[in-house]
Design a protein that fits this description.
The strands form seven sheets. This protein has a five-stranded antiparallel sheet with strand order 20-21-22-23-28, with no helix packed on it. Strands 4-5-6-7 form a four-stranded antiparallel sheet, with no helix packed on it. Strands 8-9-10-11 form a four-stranded antiparallel sheet, with no helix packed on it. It has a single domain, classed as YVTN repeat-like/Quinoprotein amine dehydrogenase (Methylamine Dehydrogenase, Chain H, 7 Propeller), CATH 2.130.10.10. By secondary structure, the protein is mainly beta. The protein is about 5% helix and about 50% strand. The protein is globular. The protein is built from one helix and 28 strands.
């Protein structure tokens, strides 16, 4: 099945037939209440949604029946993540709190209350048993999920946070902000290791490329930059000719090396990202599924300029 969040409702499609199975609004009686976030509870075959009526709902994915309502937030529920090994949900709200829920019992196990404003992003550091949360108060907080203790408050951003990514197998998180910067943090020490500067507009979204240890980040100017996490170096930058719409989401498929980009207008495109360190394969960026001249390479670190030029020539010769 495929689950799509669309205009405040969610729709469930059969992946094989592409048929729409059902549509649900934010309230089980169908009365319109915009859904602000959604996640798939894969292990129990359910869907969890957070709504602008301050309620989290658990839905049966097969029937669309609302099985449970979790109430406790006093403003919009904007973020939810699922912890399958514990069967817990973590929710972040416009009320400035983070709540930890036991789905089995419906009980709120803990409420984390140290942020001064709206929770704008959160992520689970599963290998460290920590939560990282970002807020409109311009801070990131690192929490012990068991005790609810705030271990660190990270304060170097100068505007509200919009995304935090955990780097698996490490103590690192990457944060993006409307101050146009990306920061790489060590959550054990609370220290900022790198500040990535080069975007001309606020960062709209990021995704992690695990086999390259890179971050792909887009800003509201429709420009995508690839960053090396270890060094903080900008590998290259590119944008899309003919598109004025915001890039709202990105996802990376490691096995195929595809970076899929979603636009506000509802269009998707996929870019093939390959490893420039293996020069024998002449691999970098160069294929896009929309049209050949849509991708515009703007900047390239001098180290890769010859590789890029050679690959362009190779690509043209193959045509």
């Amino acid at each position: 099945m495929v689950i799509v969040l669309f205009k405040g409702t969610f729709k469930v499609f059969d992946m094989n037939t592409k048929d729409l199975l059902y549509t649900r609004a934010g309230q089980p009686n169908g009365y319109p209440c915009e859904i602000g976030c959604i996640t798939h509870l894969l292990e129990i075959d359910c869907i969890a949604t957070g709504s602008y009526d301050n309620i989290i709902r658990i839905w049966d994915i097969e029937t669309g029946e609302c099985l449970q309502s979790l109430q406790g937030h006093t403003d919009w529920v904007k973020h939810i993540i699922y912890l399958p090994e514990k069967n817990w949900l973590i929710s972040g709200s416009k009320d400035g709190t983070i709540k930890i829920w036991d789905i089995t019992t419906g009980e709120c196990l803990n409420t984390l209350e140290e942020h001064a404003k709206n929770i704008s992003c959160l992520t689970y550091l599963d290998e460290l048993n920590l939560i990282a949360t970002g807020s409109w108060d311009r801070t990131i907080k690192i929490w012990d999920i068991t005790t609810g203790e705030c271990l660190h408050t990270l304060t170097e951003h100068t505007n509200w946070l919009n995304q935090i990514i955990y780097i698996p197998g490490s103590n690192l998180i990457v944060s993006s902000c409307t101050d146009k910067t990306i920061k790489i943090w060590d959550v054990t020490s609370g220290r900022c290791l790198h500040t990535l500067v080069g975007h001309n507009r606020p960062i709209s979204c990021m995704t992690y490329l695990p086999e390259l240890n890179w971050i792909a980040a887009s800003d509201t100017k429709q420009s995508i930059k690839l960053w090396d996490i270890e060094t903080g170096q900008n590998i290259c930058s590119f944008s899309f000719n003919g598109f004025s719409e915001l890039i709202t989401c990105m996802s990376y498929l490691p096995l195929r090396g595809l970076l899929t980009v979603g636009f506000f207008i509802g269009k998707l495109c996929s870019i093939q990202i390959k490893n420039p360190y293996d020069l024998t394969l002449l691999e970098l960026i160069l294929q896009i599924t929309m049209q050949k001249d849509t991708l515009l390479r703007e900047e390239l670190h001098p180290s890769w300029q010859d590789v890029y030029d050679n690959m362009i020539q190779c690509h043209q010769n193959l045509e």
